[in-house]
Amino acid sequence: MMAKKYIVGLTGGIASGKTTVANLFAQYGIDLVDADVIAREVVSIGSDGLNAIKQHFGQGILLADNSLDRAALRAQVFNNPEQRLWLNNLLHPMIRQRMLDQVQASTSAYVIMVVPLLFENHLDSLVDTTLVVDIAPELQVSRTMQRDGVSKEQVEHILASQMTREQRLALADNIIDNQGEHEQLRSQVFRLHQQYLQQATDLETNVND
Predict the structure, then answer these.
(1) What would the pLDDT profile of 107-122 be if each residue is shown by its tens digit?
(2) Contact, 24 vs 196, CB < 8 A?
(3) Is the pLDDT of residue 3 over 60?
(4) HEC string for the chain
(5) CA angle at residue 41 from 7 to 33, to 5 degrees?
(6) Among 44, 59, 24, 60, which residue's Cα sits nearest to residue 192?
(7) Is 113 within 8 Å of 9 (Cβ atoms)?
(8) CB atoms < 10 A from the CB of 85, how many?
(9) What is the maximal distance between C-alpha atoms in the chain?
(10) Model confidence at 97, in pLDDT bands (50, 70, 90)?
(11) Is the N end or the C end of the chain the one with fewer CB atoms within 10 Å?
């Protein structure tokens, strides 16, 4: 465990505004470690991850430029629990290790680890505190439909695959309500930033004692 790094695990359901909140923390000079960005990196062209996927599933999961055809891969694992498990067993340790490497390389007072499925994938075990960005499910549906141009049924399918709002809130150490004005959001982030600075200082003091 990275004793001297205070890690905040930032999560929330689809379209809750995780990126917006993370970027507000970044404005205070806080380093972000983004699981979605890393998940793309570990299957980029020439990566060990993509090579292993190609060996397992064949050339059919590649696009013309040799990058990963995500739609083809999704089709391979969609209704196949065994293949999905194989893929998760390959990629999750890679993503986890790269996240930890980035945390160690961070120079900010604390680190924000942005992980959409923080609780579902048990990555909350890596962090010191958890922060959930919360909005009502009906708002998630309307925002996702607008943002991604998908149907209500598709969004509800995604929501059904994630932890429920109640489950997520029950596991949260801190909660940001992202249903109001941007200024309200900024003030919540500022208050938590001050709190995390103090907690990071306390952690370092305890480590050095």
Answers:
(1) 999 999 999 999 998 9
(2) no
(3) no
(4) CCCCCCEEEEEECCCCCHHHHHHHHHCCCCEEEEHHHHHHHCCCCCCHHHHHHHHHHCHHHECCCCCECHHHHHHHHCCCHHHHHHHHHHHHHHHHHHHHHHHHHCCCCCEEEECCCCCCCCHHHHCCEEEEEECCHHHHHHHHHHHHCCCHHHHHHHHHHCCCHHHHHHHCCEEEECCCCHHHHHHHHHHHHHHHHHHHHHHHHHHHC
(5) 15
(6) 24
(7) yes
(8) 11
(9) 57
(10) very high
(11) C
Give me the residue label for tokens 């959409």: 116
Structure-token match 């891969």, residue found: 73
Residue-level pLDDT at 209: 64
pLDDT digits (tens, 9 = 90+) for 157-205: 888 888 899 999 999 999 999 999 999 999 999 999 999 999 999 988 8
The 10 Å Cβ neighbour count of residue 204 is 15
Alpha carbon of 10 to those of 24, 35, 42, 47, 108: distances in Å?
Answer: 12, 10, 21, 27, 16
